[in-house]
Amino acid sequence: MKDQIKKVAVLGCGVVLFLSTVSYKSDFFEIAKQIEIFTTLFKELNMNYVDETNPAELMDTAINSMLRDLDPYTHYWNEQEVQAAKINNLGEYTGIGATVMVRDNKIIVVEPYKDYPADKAGLRAGDEIIKIGDVSIANFEEDAGELLNGAPNSMVEITYNRQGETRLTTLSRGSIDIKAVPYYKLLEGNIGYIVLSQFNRNATKETIQALKELKNDGATSIILDLRGNPGGLLSEAINVSNIFVPQGELITTTKSAVEKYNKVYKTTNQPVDTSIPLAILINGRSASASEIVAGSLQDLDRAVILGARSFGKGLVQRPKDLTYGTQLKVTISRYYTPSGRCIQALDYRNRDTEGNAVRIKTDEYNEFSTRNGRKVYDGGGILPDISMETSEYSSITNALLLENAIFDYATEYYYSHNLDKPEDFEFTDSDYTEFKNYLKTSGFSYKTMTEKHLQEAFETAEDEGFDNKISNTYTEMEKIIEEEKRMALDEKKAEITSLISDEIIKRYFYKEGLFEYSVQQNPEILEAKKVLLDTGKYNKILQ
């Protein structure tokens, strides 16, 4: 009987091996088949199409269209983009020293860095660059922003518009050092405040340096500000967490369909301080590596988290080298916090009728426990222990940011108001009324999801011949929604005012001035200071 069981077991193993081999060969054959089909199609198309084709552009379109259906983080990078990614991770590049955005085929200066080339040349936020050297931006079909980069000390002439006036300036490109920790300071109550803006290769080193200096100056508790931090290197997220927890602590695990990508990441270094009270600030723009740090320290009951639910990017990417210096940045796994939470918010495997990824519903969230037994949940981002209204981005706020309404208003404000010191600034009720009037004259508008679904329903009614019967109701509902949208500007005044204030202060006093203003006025920082100064409340939250 035992021999028969052994034979069956061996036979079973053989069947599993055979099936897995067949599956692998089947997948390989299907991939090879599709590549052959595409190769012959691509060749025939380029050789026979009625007009002249550009093979490189066609291939870029094909690749990007294919990847777009997977998730927003799987990308094909050409040689220039590969180099840009390396520079970003190193924390330095050569350029004009300013953040810019491309809008309606225009390059807009978003933020000139203090004392860097763009700032010294007189460029300001809101300036529209219309010509770089002899190249007109309007006629340039590629990435015009690349024209701003160049060799160190090389000169470039820039023509730009400011408030309807065309101006000309010349600047010398320079080496730009991107700090992971652009600001830290000892606040009243012996509270150290550290801004960690990105997880490049210098993130851990700069955070440790800031922490040690603050402790030497007398800091007995720490605020770590991760708001707006989009993430970066996974290794740096592990090491930054390691600053505050012992060696050997689990920080995150990754799970994948490919077994070799299933990893467990624990701290490997000696910590700097495992007991100093710690508050971490996050918001809807804190993503990826920021969420690993906030999530792990929350699960380990090592920090109190304040602000708003984080972005919810729980997908891990890895670059794969391709030919001719190109790369595929491909999503390989999902990451999980120590309690077992996956904080990925959007499910790209399931999409709605418009092709948008579906957000996980609240009633589908799963409950997990921190080390001390506190309840935490998955389903999208890290939910803070203390939620702050001023950190949350409602639909009206997101629309204002998407349409650059706050940015454009701050430009208008800067050229019509004088401000000598950050502490003198106050955004009053009359200023907010002025902002709402600006929105009316600027043509700002947005559609809520309710409006989109309502319009789809009415269009269906037209197809079915019911539109005449419900048109009055439809018009009435449109009026109600418009009124609700107007009211939303007042209901969300706190969060909108906070963003407007930040943008305005930055115009006059750069990011450095904004930090100085924030440590005195920002609601999240003030709340974090309260919690850290109240030992009983701090311990109660973590217990």
TrEMBL record:
MF term (GO), any: endopeptidase activity
Gene Ontology cellular-component annotations: outer membrane-bounded periplasmic space
PROSITE patterns found in the cross-reference section: PDZ
Pfam families: PDZ_2, Peptidase_S41
Gene3D superfamilies named in the record: 2-enoyl-CoA Hydratase, Chain A, domain 1, 2.30.42.10, 3.30.750.44
Keyword check for Amino-acid biosynthesis: no
GO BP: proteolysis; signal transduction
InterPro entries per the UniProt record, alphabetical: ClpP/crotonase-like_dom_sf (IPR029045), PDZ (IPR001478), PDZ_sf (IPR036034), Peptidase_S41A (IPR004447), Tail-specific_protease (IPR005151)
Keywords, comma-separated and alphabetical: Hydrolase, Protease, Serine protease
Family: Belongs to the peptidase S41A family.
Name listed for the protein in its UniProt record: Peptidase S41
Organism: Salinimicrobium marinum
Gene designation per UniProt: prc
